């Protein structure tokens, strides 16, 4: 992140319009990985403005159209992570429009990935899987290797969420291998988070917890706050399956929900609160469970997460009766 900040500062100081927009995009991406969403968004918006108003001011080997695909892709994913669904959809569509104009495989993969992520963050897993599987095929056919690890990783996360652990393990290990080959440490860390949940589903929760804790330590050291948070949630979910670890799971879920709210990950905060409510209910703490469900419902409604919203409302109705 420091290198990206220095790149923006240098390009600005030299008044280098050719490289400034790309540097702003890179810093916005770095802030996103660090969980600094409020700082990332204006940088991406500024980069979009530069590429739109002065399409000739781009580095050699790039085009304004392709860079706009990437910027709108990042804006779409950022908005999806923070629960701004309409904004996410708008930016994913803009990325798609630019990609269709260029018809370059790299642009089409980036735009498709954005659409898949918007559906994934809304918990529309069937549609997300359909889109990401198509993107993975396109990336393989056209050797878009930079995106392939990320797409495979997200497909793996969907398999985990839908209980297909054996398939998830296979594709997540492939994602890690592909990420290592292109030097993408972020995807390697994120794939490990999903593998933690995968191994728990495969009957090895001890291994899952060890991996989740290792991911938290590694992500914290590298400043990957959003990945650290997801690893924390993965550990909490594994602990929640063990009756003897209920108190620890509750504490972890409370921490995850609070951290997610603090950095602006509204959907993830809602998911943590929903899981926390279920654990509190099982522990006989009905009033606290109802409070958490009411908060989760509010978060899901704002984020237009209809599947999660319906589930939380049904759970609240059962507790009320």
Describe this structure in words.
The chain is an all-alpha fold. Among the domains are: 1-139, Serine Threonine Protein Phosphatase 5, Tetratricopeptide repeat (Alpha Horseshoe), CATH 1.25.40; 253-321. The chain has helices at residues 2-13, 17-33, 37-53, 64-81, 85-102, 105-121, 125-141, 148-161, 165-182, 185-201, 205-222, 225-239, 246-263, 266-282, 286-303, 306-320. It is globular. The N and C termini lie far apart (51 Å). The mean pLDDT is 93.
Quaternary structure: single chain
Structural class: mainly alpha
State the helical fraction. over 70%
- At the fourth CATH level, what is the homologous superfamily of the domain at 1-139? Tetratricopeptide repeat domain
Which regions contain 5 or more consecutive residues with pLDDT less than 50? Answer: none
Supply database-style keywords:
single chain; 321 residues; mainly alpha; 16 helices
Quick overview:
With 321 residues, this protein is mainly α. It is built from 16 helices and no strands.
Helix-strand layout with pairing:
Blueprint: H1 2-13, H2 17-33, H3 37-53, H4 64-81, H5 85-102, H6 105-121, H7 125-141, H8 148-161, H9 165-182, H10 185-201, H11 205-222, H12 225-239, H13 246-263, H14 266-282, H15 286-303, H16 306-320
Helix pairs in contact: 1-2, 2-3, 2-4, 3-4, 4-5, 4-6, 5-6, 6-7, 7-8, 8-9, 8-10, 9-10, 10-11, 10-12, 11-12, 12-13, 13-14, 14-15, 14-16, 15-16
């Amino acid at each position: 992140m420091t290198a990206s900040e220095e790149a923006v500062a240098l390009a600005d100081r030299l008044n280098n319009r050719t490289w400034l927009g790309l540097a702003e995009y890179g810093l916005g991406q770095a802030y996103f990985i660090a969980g600094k969403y409020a700082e990332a968004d204006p940088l991406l918006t500024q980069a979009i403005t530069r590429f739109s108003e002065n399409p000739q001011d781009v580095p050699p080997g790039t085009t304004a159209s392709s860079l706009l695909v990437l910027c709108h892709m990042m804006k779409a994913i950022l908005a999806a992570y923070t629960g701004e669904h309409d904004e996410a959809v708008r930016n994913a569509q803009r990325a798609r429009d630019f990609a269709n104009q260029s018809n370059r495989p790299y642009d089409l993969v980036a735009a498709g990935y954005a659409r898949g992520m918007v559906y994934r963050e809304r918990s529309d897993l069937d549609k997300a899987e359909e889109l990401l599987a198509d993107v993975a095929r396109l990336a393989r056919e056209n050797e878009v290797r930079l995106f392939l690890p990320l797409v495979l990783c997200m497909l793996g996360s969907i398999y985990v969420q839908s209980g297909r652990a054996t398939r998830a393990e296979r594709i997540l290990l492939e994602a890690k291998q592909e990420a290592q080959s292109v030097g993408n440490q972020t995807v390697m860390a994120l794939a490990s988070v999903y593998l933690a949940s995968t191994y728990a589903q495969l009957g090895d929760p001890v291994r899952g917890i060890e991996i989740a804790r290792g991911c938290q330590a590694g992500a914290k050291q590298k400043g990957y706050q959003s990945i650290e948070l997801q690893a924390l949630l993965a550990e909490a979910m594994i602990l929640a399956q063990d009756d003897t670890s209920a108190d620890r799971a509750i504490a972890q879920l409370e921490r995850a929900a609070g951290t997610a709210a603090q950095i602006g990950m509204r959907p993830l905060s809602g998911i943590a609160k929903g899981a926390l409510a279920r654990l509190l209910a099982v522990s006989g703490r009905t009033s606290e469970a109802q409070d958490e469900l009411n908060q989760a419902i509010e978060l899901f409604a704002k984020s237009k997460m209809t599947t999660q919203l319906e589930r939380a409302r049904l759970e609240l109705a059962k507790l009320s009766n």
